[in-house]
Amino acid sequence: MPKSVFECAGSKHVMDAAQKALQRAKLAGANPTDPCEGKKDQAGCDALDECTWCKSAAVASSCYTRAQSKFLPPAVFQCDKPAPTAANRRERRKASLKAAVAGRGKRRNASGPSNQPSDV
């Protein structure tokens, strides 16, 4: 079979391409506090919402952030959670802002006496 048309799953070319894709994904999602790095099994990885376990026949299966997973070629990697879309990111950002505003209001109410005049 001509190499320009067919690639065998175990060929050096596919493994090299997979390694390069992994490097790009890690660089694209580079984060010094990456919660997914170091997760050695699928259960530990999937316990975190922002992480996804990606399997590959060309390289060892591993845990990646969902943002990193969008840079992995789907012909080589099968990840168990979808990569985030722009709509998902907007919704998460809205929820995060809403929680921050609610938290700020709680802190303000609990921080001291109110400015209301007392009936003393």
Overall number of strands? 3
Shape: elongated
End-to-end Cα distance, whole Å, is 94 Å
Helix content: 40-55%
Given as residue ranges, the uncertain stretches (5+ residues, pLDDT < 50) are 1-6
How large is the share of residues in beta strands?
5-15%
Class per helix and strand makeup: alpha+beta
Average pLDDT taken over every residue: 75
How many helical stretches?
Answer: 4
Question: How would you characterize the largest beta sheet?
Answer: 3 strands, antiparallel
Order of helices and strands: HHEEHEH
Going across the biggest sheet, name each strand in turn: 2-1-3
Our Rg estimate from Cα atoms comes to: 22 Å
What does this 3D model show about the protein?
This protein starts with 11 loop residues before the first helix and ends in a 10-residue tail after the last helix. A hairpin with a 5-residue loop joins strand 1 and strand 2 (62-65). The chain has helices at residues 12-28, 42-46, 66-69, 86-110, and strands at 51-56, 62-65, 77-79. It has a domain at 12-81. By secondary structure, the protein is α+β, with helices and mostly antiparallel strands. Residues 80-120 are annotated as: Disordered. Residues 111-120 have a biased composition (Polar residues).
